[in-house]
Design brief:
The chain is α+β, with helices and mostly antiparallel strands and 307 residues long. The chain folds into three domains: 93 residues, Arc Repressor Mutant, subunit A (Orthogonal Bundle); 68 residues, Winged helix-like DNA-binding domain superfamily/Winged helix DNA-binding domain (Arc Repressor Mutant, subunit A, Orthogonal Bundle); 122 residues, Aminopeptidase. It has eleven helices and eleven strands. Strands 6, 7, 8, 9, 10 and 11 form a six-stranded mixed β-sheet that branches. The model has no long low-confidence stretch (mean pLDDT 90).
Length: 307
């Protein structure tokens, strides 16, 4: 969330602070107060700064991390930076610039922000999708979506028999002809992929990240990356970067059954893979397995000709 929109995180933070909405962790108020007091008196700190601190008790890292997370989720702390992927927590008022609007948005402002922000990011959406993982707001969203349609702020479109809302300017993008002959490798945590039902309806792509699935139940691999081609998700790739040898290992590359890979796709995929190697700070690539099996040989040959 851009810092200018920080105030729109307040409604949920206040609900968590009051106890109207629960976060993942139970609140250890004694530990939370001790941590908050130390940060107030000292400076921004990381979870590991508290692990052996007798002033807050003989706590392991997990209780401290949970307490910091709760303080963050109810708005008393903010993440000011990261050090080697470790979150650095500080008082919210010490981090936010003075020019940032910190007033509580009205209910209408908050609902409209959720709607417009979602539609700007996703192009189209339904009330159930905009309300995803948010509690007690779907009815409010539905009512405001209808009002915005009546006021000509939004338009309804039908896709695969489903009605969606969209901003008018988003539809104007359809007048720009995109270059669809591109391969894009997606992160499993891209916003486009979060809602599996939405992916199934819009792209006929049943996707799930499998790192949280027991190994015996995985279909495609530990960290499966979806691959987009010509406006469709046509493949998945499980890969791992070996930092010691600077080698990117493609553990398994799987094409959708109905997708017939052609030369243009294969060469374009290799172009994207070369960029992906660099992105992962690697210099070499090894294709371990593919489905169908012949794709491995083709990709390996193209890669060998593109040192």
């Amino acid at each position: 969330m851009p810092i200018k929109d920080h105030r729109f995180s307040f409604p949920r933070k206040q609900a968590i602070f009051r106890g109207d909405e629960k976060h993942w962790f139970e609140k250890d108020k004694s530990l939370m107060n001790s941590i908050l007091k130390r940060i107030e008196n000292e400076e921004a700190l990381m979870a590991k700064d508290f692990v052996h601190d007798r002033k807050v008790g003989d706590w392991g890292s997990k209780p401290v991390k949970r307490a910091l997370e709760n303080l963050f989720m109810q708005g008393e702390l903010i993440i000011s930076s990261r050090k080697n992927f470790h979150k650095v927590y500080d008082l919210t008022e010490r981090v936010l610039p003075e020019y940032i609007d910190t007033s509580m948005p009205t209910q209408k402002e908050y609902i409209r922000f959720l709607i417009t922000n979602y539609l700007k990011a996703n192009g189209i959406g339904k009330d159930s999708e905009i309300a995803y993982l948010l509690k007690n707001i779907k009815k409010l969203l539905t009512a405001e979506l209808k009002k915005m349609c009546e006021n000509k702020e939004l338009i309804q479109v039908s896709i695969n028999g489903q009605l969606y809302y969209a901003l008018f300017y988003s539809l104007q993008l359809l007048n720009k002809r995109p270059n669809l002959n591109q391969v894009k490798i997606f992160s499993p945590f891209d916003n486009l992929l979060i809602q599996r039902k939405r992916m199934k309806i819009l792209f006929n792509f049943d996707y799930q990240i499998e790192c949280y699935t027991p190994e015996a139940k995985r279909k495609y691999g530990y960290f499966v990356l979806p691959i987009l081609w010509n406006g469709k998700f046509v493949a998945r790739m499980d890969c791992k970067a070996d930092r010691k040898t600077a080698t990117l290992h493609i553990l398994h590359l799987v094409l959708k059954n109905e997708f017939k890979a052609k030369d243009t796709f294969n060469t374009t995929l290799v172009t994207e893979l070369i960029s992906f190697i660099d992105f992962n700070n690697c210099t070499k690539i090894q294709v371990r397995k593919s489905s169908p099996h012949w794709l491995k040989a083709i990709l390996t040959q193209i890669l060998e000709n593109n040192p």
